[in-house]
Amino acid sequence: MSLMHASTAQAVPGTPGVMRWVLVATLPGIALMSWHFGWGVLANVLVAGGLAMALEALMLRLRGRAIGATLGDHSALVSGVLLGAALPPFAPWWLLLVGVAAAIVVAKHLYGGLGQNLFNPAMVGYALLLIAFPVPMTQWVAPLGLVGPEALSPLEALRQLAGLGPGLDALSGATPLDAFKHKPEGLMAQEFWAGEPLPPGAQAAWRDVALGWLAGGALLLWRRLIDWRIPLALLGSLTLLSGLLYAGDPSQHGSPAFHLFAGAAIFGACFIATDPVSAAAGRRGRWLYGAAIGVLVVVIRTQGAYPDAIAFAVLLMNFAVPLIDHLLPPRPLGRRQRETSP
Amino acid sequence: MSDFLLILVSTALVNNFVLVQFLGLCPFMGVSSKLESAFGMAAATTFVLTLSALASHLVYHQLLAPLGLEYLRIIAFILVIAAVVQFTELMVKKTSPLLHQVLGIFLPLITTNCAVLGVALLSVRRESSLIEAGLYGLGAALGFSLVLVLFAALRERLALADVPRPFRGAAIAMISASLMSLAFMGFAGLVQG
Q1: Is A341 inside any structural domain?
Q2: Sign, Cα dihedral of B81, B87, B91, B97
Q3: pLDDT grade, residue A162 (50/70/90)?
Q4: For position A141, what pLDDT does the model report?
């Protein structure tokens, strides 16, 4: 793996530097998400990050590796933070523990640790939890805010984290994608939205969070830490395909803007699919990789059983990456484009 | 037309024989350590699976059902599959020695691929027409080929990874297969029924 990516290696600071920038880039998204959805987001991110560091240290010790240097590269922290941000706020501790364990122990260290994981660790954790614990994984709180009159206090967040809370049934509301997925068959989209199927402010909250992730992605692009091809191809194919569906039948399909801003599309495009280890290595391969994720997301969202599909789409394409790299290998450094065929 | 497409998508992705129905695991694990042999196995299996799905459909509906011998279907299908495999090998050997070189050792192996028998038995249970049975076999074969080839490429990369010693070899291959299976659950609900 490290051999394959050598062509891009010198342009980038070392792993700790990259990971610090990624952590900084998650801040706008996490801040906006906490602002709208409350202390549970911060609890998720901090606990998942901490658990990820602890499990990383444990695995390094079991494998007889130096703990300090590897733990100091922040890569486990990034995986934990991304998983924590993807999970529903006010998740109980055991949900975080199972997810982080799947991410760090199985997806990362059983595959040889940093730089060798074939599957994106955070998305392995997320998909495993979604299959194993569908109920807590689909309970999103309504956007009650961080400090507003209805907001849950930090103490309440801790009680939810400890699994002592009264349950979130009374406070939970569907996500926009989830609600639209369960739209009654005959109902037109306009009528459906006019019926206010969501808690007040939910759509605006989700849009703000997506914009926060977009700001983080822009930061990463500006620092040249992620390849612009992947998010562009992903969001481009997602917009194009959802646009075609929307143009064909606007009464039954979500608009491209809905697909972009109502779910995890931008988060996935900027922070998940761009993971340089589990993404395709070559330029052509990255176009294909990103575009295929976008297509899979729209197909699963509109035809499949799951309202959002970033995790599955990314995992499916992670699984195809070795073959993509085999068929569309990265061009050797220093060669011009035309000379490389056949 | 869209019915036919649905059968293909359903058998190749949603109800993938390897990752969702857990059939045909022996060649999936056994022939996936090299990409080239995986391509050969995929091609040979696609050919035999489609043909044997058609042949067993004919045998069941033209021979067993009229005679009231449905309970003999397992043994009859095994016979049909073995015959199809033998016939394929003979024909390939005569007509295209090159292809025979590529597919050579994989052809006899297919007889023991439980996915082939599984496809024959499941497609009879669906009470489908001959064309649908053929498409069912083709879809199953395409799904099998897809995951076999992807898995082989993945395992070639895995061979270079610094996997902890207790997990090397079959263990990490099984774990990878289970993660792939997890990813394929995302296709659930894509096709009803």
Answers
A1: no
A2: positive
A3: confident
A4: 83
**Count of structural domains within chain A:** 1
The span from the CA of B70 to the CA of B83, in Å, is: 19
Phi and psi angles of residue A130, each rounded to the nearest 5 degrees, phi first: -65, -40
Closest CA to A81 of A15, A136, A135, A26: A26
State whether residue A128 sits within 8 Å of chain B by CB.
yes
Residue of B nearest to A102 (CA): B179
SS3 string of B142-168?
A: HHHHHHHHHHHHHHHHHCCCCCCHHHC
Which chain A residue has its CA at the smallest distance from B186's CA? A312
Question: Which SS3 state, helix, strand or coil, does residue A26 take?
Answer: helix
- Give the distance from residue B53's alpha carbon to the nearest chain A alpha carbon, in angstroms: 28
* Number of domains chain B contains: 1
The mean of the pLDDT values for chain A is 86
By CA distance, what is B167's nearest residue in A? A110
Residue keyed to tokens 């080239």: B36
- What's the ipTM? 0.88
Facing residue for A323 by CB, picked from B150, B164, B187: B150
Asked whether residue A166 is assigned to any structural domain, the reply reads: yes
CATH number where A282 lies: 1.10.3430
> Is A109 at the interface with chain B, CB within 8 A?
yes
> What is the pLDDT averaged over residues A99-124?
92
Residues of A in contact with B184 (CB under 8 A): 316
Compute how many other C-beta atoms are within 10 angstroms of the C-beta atom of residue B182.
24
Structural domain boundaries, residue A177: 15-334
* A11-67 pLDDT per residue, tens: 446 788 888 899 999 999 999 999 988 888 999 999 999 999 999 999 999 988 888
d(CA A211, CA A232): 16
Q: Flag if A323 and B149 touch (Cβ within 8 Å).
A: yes
Asked if residue B77 lies in contact with residue B117, where contact means CB atoms within 8 angstroms, the answer is yes
Q: What pLDDT sits at residue A2?
A: 39
Res. A148: pLDDT tops 90: no
Classify residue A204: in a domain, yes or no: yes
For residue B1, the model assigns a pLDDT of: 67
Least confident of A131-140, A149-158, A255-264: A149-158
Q: What is the structure's pLDDT at A13?
A: 61
Residue B171 lies in a domain: yes
The reply to whether B12 falls in a domain is yes
Query: pTM to 2 decimals?
Result: 0.89
Q: Cβ contacts of residue B23 below 8 Å, gap of 6+?
A: B17, B114, B115, B118
| Least confident span in A76-80, A310-314, B66-70 | B66-70
Instruction: Domain of residue B20: give its range.
Output: 1-186
Within-domain flag for B119: yes
Q: Are A103 and A125 in contact (CB under 8 A)?
A: yes
Q: Please check whether residue B192 lies inside any domain of the structure.
A: no
Test mutation, A110, A119, A130, chain B, max B CBs within 10 A: A110
* Six token digits for residue A236: 């481009």
Asked whether residue A319 carries a pLDDT value surpassing 80, the answer given is: yes
